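Reviewer comment 2.1 asked that we show a complete input and output for one of the modelled complexes. We chose the adenosine-5'-triphosphate case, as it is the one discussed in the main text.
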Amino acid sequence: MIHLRNITKSFGSLQVLRGIDLDINQGEVVSIVGPSGAGKTTLLQIMGTLDQPDTGQIIIDGQDVRKLSRKKMAQFRNRRIGFVFQFHQLLPEFTALENIMIPAFIGGVGRKEAQHRATELLEFMKLTDRADHKPNELSGGEKQRVAVARALINHPAVVLADEPSGSLDSQNKDELHRLFFDLRDRLKQTFVIVTHDESLASMTDRTIHMVDGLTSSEPFDSFAPKDKTAKESSIVSSIDINSLQDEKQ
Ligand SMILES: Nc1ncnc2c1ncn2[C@@H]1O[C@H](COP(=O)(O)OP(=O)(O)OP(=O)(O)O)[C@@H](O)[C@H]1O
Ligand SMILES: [Mg+2]
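Response of the prediction step:
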């Protein structure tokens, strides 16, 4: 489903990603954890074609995305990748229903079909009675569920979420996390979720640990050990822990 090979990325002299290899299967819910500045958001943005790596290959749903023109890449992103950010990023002047429909319109889906899909998603999110509310009339948890519905409207190959529950209280957090697993079970939806939330990470099929621009399925020393089976921690990039000690922060 998603294959990353040797992804590197520097900002000036700061090398943020140092050769990431990663494979994610359809229907998998994968979490990415690691300290602030480890490169998690950078990796997610690159995976989502919102940013370009310096080197490496990104294959999503059989498509080598770096070979696409800018226009085709934007089209691919709209149709195949859903995004959920820490802050919902809904458009304030549109209702919940309209916000959900927007990516469908951008993708050329007709109004009737877009409305049908958005209505179904709202129902799935248990938000039918909030369809006509604007974001400032929704609770934090509701806004985030609308954002998830918006990410799903074009039936994406993968939903990429960057700290999606980072701004929620514990009840809304739990509800949102349950929603991800519901969507996986019912739609076989693939998720890659960057999170600082240990309980969410422990629920996911696999946790990728990032530190200093490298990934591992095993926690580095600086992480709390997690109870994961060998099967769950199968995939990883090359790790050179010794070299981490030489890295400047
Ligand atoms: N556009 C940019 N220009 C320069 N440096 C950047 C840019 N984006 C990120 N960085 C730097 O790259 C490093 C990794 O950033 P990134 O946002 O990927 O970290 P993160 O793991 O998501 O951290 P957090 O948990 O705090 O969100 C940081 O040192 C950051 O300052
Ligand atoms: Mg981040």
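Residues 221-249 have pLDDT under 50 and may be disordered. We note this here for comparison with the apo prediction described in Section 3.2.
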